[in-house]
Design goal:
Blueprint (H helix, E strand, L loop, with lengths): L2 E10 L3 H17 L4 E6 L11 H4 L6 E10 L2 H13 L4 H5 L9 E6 L5
Antiparallel strand pairs: 1-3, 1-4, 2-3
């Protein structure tokens, strides 16, 4: 079964194009270094829930949009190997110093697949 890294974050609407630029570069790097897939998706149908929701989770502001992303790998060991290389990749350094979103409100985690088709 594959291993999945998942992310949910809030991007200012004014920064969506800058985020797409960063995500496009990041995706090509992740794939080059061994990820199986890389997906970035902008919210289209994410209502604000009474108790929980994607917008609540990232403390979404009126001028922001929710982004849901995931990267898949062969295994956790492969993920750890790829992630170490990505974090050292010089091509991403400019974005790490000036991210087009508030990284403090990003939710992320690694998941082992239990059902997969």
């Amino acid at each position: 079964m594959t291993y999945v890294d998942g992310f949910v974050l809030a991007v200012p609407k004014a920064n969506v194009e800058a985020y797409k630029e960063m995500a496009t570069l990041a995706g090509s790097i992740w794939m080059e270094l061994g990820a199986l897939s890389y997906v970035e998706a902008i919210a289209e149908d994410t209502p604000y829930g009474e108790v929980t929701s994607f917008p609540r989770a990232v403390q979404l502001k009126d001028d922001e949009i929710t982004v849901f992303s995931w990267i898949t790998y062969d295994s956790k060991a492969k993920r750890d190997e790829v992630m170490a290389k990505v974090m050292e990749d010089e091509r991403l350094k400019p974005y790490m110093q000036n991210m087009p979103f508030d990284g403090k409100r990003m939710i992320f985690g690694g998941f082992e697949s239990i059902v997969q088709y």
